[in-house]
Amino acid sequence: MTPVLAAFARQYPEVRLEVQSGLSHEIWQAFEGGELDLALIKQGRGQGEPIARWREPLAWVDSREWPAAGRDPVPLVVFPSEGLYRRQMTDALDARGIAWRIAYVSASLASLQGAVSAGIGVSLLPARLLQPEQVELTHWPAVRPVELALHLGAGGSEPLSRLCEALIALCDEVMGEEAIVAR
Known about the structure:
alpha+beta, three-stranded antiparallel β-sheet, 5 helices, 9 strands, elongated
């Protein structure tokens, strides 16, 4: 995303670009509070009225070399308590009567992937990001679908519209599908 943002900053030097990165619920709170003009977040499918959305299939993942799925209780690698996937993980396991414990917590996706690959525990992560040293646990409980969504606040400008177009094109490429775009 940084090349898109840098190109925007060069094309519109008069626009003050300020980027925040964090958990989706934090970004959403800032957007809802009027602190941000646009927000690119993960959310439950069909929530809100984004200008564009992409499906984000999730997968239960485990280490290929040091599997944790057979341990009792199952160790989990999770985002902090407000993270979108964490509650889905624990609810799905509880519904199946599978004992679990929190083994590793991080707000960093790369850190969670590293912990899974190292065999610290099982996680629920975007399926498109499965690493070679990881395996998908295909028979684990189903979870609610999520999506990547681009929300635009009121009072859009021509530069903001151009940034949205660039972000939609980037997300189309990264997500491997065209966005569902609100008109």
